[in-house]
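TASK: fixed-backbone design
INPUT:
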């Protein structure tokens, strides 16, 4: 899942070298933290959070086949 979020984020931002994705696994629950440059934060979140919701939806759909729960947090 980490790689999926990283590929999506790098395709959205102007500074792909500043994209950092960390993954914390706790049993069947995984938390993925996405960090981008402050200037790219708006591109990852989108208007009214639409892009962030879409990223979360794609990751949730991909994680269903592995039977795990994945949360995506976008942090500064």
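OUTPUT:
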């Amino acid at each position: 899942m980490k790689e999926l979020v990283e590929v999506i984020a790098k395709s959205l931002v102007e500074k792909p070298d500043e994209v950092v994705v960390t993954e914390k696994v706790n049993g069947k629950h995984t938390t993925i933290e996405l960090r981008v440059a402050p200037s790219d934060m708006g591109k990852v979140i989108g208007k009214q959070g639409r892009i962030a919701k879409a990223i979360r939806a794609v990751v949730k759909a991909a994680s269903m086949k592995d039977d795990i729960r994945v949360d995506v947090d976008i942090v500064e």
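COMMENT: The mean pLDDT is 94.
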